[in-house]
Amino acid sequence: MKYKDIDFKPPKKVREAAKRGLELRKKFHRGGLSSKVAGKLGIGSGIIRAVNLSKGSKMAPRTVKRMKNYFTRHQKDKRPGWSNPKNPTNGYIAWMLWGGDPGFAWARKIVKQMKKADKR
User: Fold this and answer.
1) Of the candidates 5, 12, 3, which has an alpha carbon nearest to the alpha carbon of residue 103?
2) Each residue's pLDDT tens digit, 35-78
3) In angstroms, rounded to a whole number, what is the distance separating the alpha carbons of residues 92 and 6?
4) How far apart are the C-alpha atoms of 106 and 108, rounded to whole Å?
5) Helices then strands, each counted (H, E), the chain
6) Per residue in 34-60, is it b (16+ CB within 10 Å) or e — as a string?
7) What pLDDT score does 92 carry?
8) Model pTM?
């Protein structure tokens, strides 16, 4: 297996961010797509991603690539006040479901490691 030296298990900060995303979604009843809605759109569900990340489940290489792509696409959602604790935006809640800033950093790192392994 070409990725045997890569750790696909999300680190603690990623797990914590995803767990926080789930808490925010439950509290505010919004943010993140259900698997049913996401499936109709042909995209990954932030809720499923958050559950797997928060449990520390090993992610598939394809999933980590999706995470990186999600974060890259949605960086534009970051605006002043988006993480307001009294009224976070849907975008912030979704961002957290995918692992937040730590998830973005981790996904970039893992994708970089995969690309290096692909070249070998």
Assistant:
1) 12
2) 676 556 555 567 888 999 999 999 999 999 999 999 999 999 99
3) 29
4) 5
5) 6, 0
6) eeeebeeeeebbbbbbbebbbeeeebe
7) 95
8) 0.89
